[in-house]
Design goal:
The protein contains 2 helices and 3 strands; from the N terminus they run H-E-E-E-H. The chain is of the alpha+beta class and 113 residues long. The chain has a domain of 73 residues. Strands 1-2-3 form a 3-stranded antiparallel beta sheet, with helices on one face. The protein is flat.
Length: 113
């Protein structure tokens, strides 16, 4: 796929953890990496796409039985592409830092109870 394209698709079937481990044993298996509560979205900087994930959350209230959360911690993960050059990657590192600051400021603007 081209670096300008981002195609995400999901598997329509859920698999139990034991089946996932067994099915991937030949390639070294899978290891638990992190518990993620949600996906804020995807953003594209100069060349690469980034996935913004909710790592920690706090319940602030409830509306009609539905919990309302604020984000306590997020993580930005690069979706790498082989064609992205190192000088572009360096510039994108600066943009990622700015995005972290913006998310932090938004969180301060809407504090949790």
């Amino acid at each position: 796929m081209e670096p300008s394209d981002l195609n995400i698709s999901g598997e329509p079937v859920g698999y139990p953890p034991q089946q996932i481990a067994e099915g991937n044993r030949v390639t070294g298996g899978l290891n638990f990496v992190a518990k993620v509560y949600g996906i804020v979205g995807c953003i594209k900087f100069l060349e690469s796409y980034y996935l913004i994930l909710v790592m920690k959350r706090r319940q602030n209230g409830c509306i009609c039985g539905h919990a309302i959360y604020s984000i306590d911690e997020h993580q930005i993960i690069t979706i790498p592409h082989v064609s992205v050059q190192t000088d572009v990657a360096h510039s994108e590192s600066k943009l990622r830092k700015l995005l972290h600051m913006i998310i932090y400021i938004i969180n301060l603007s809407f504090p949790s109870k």
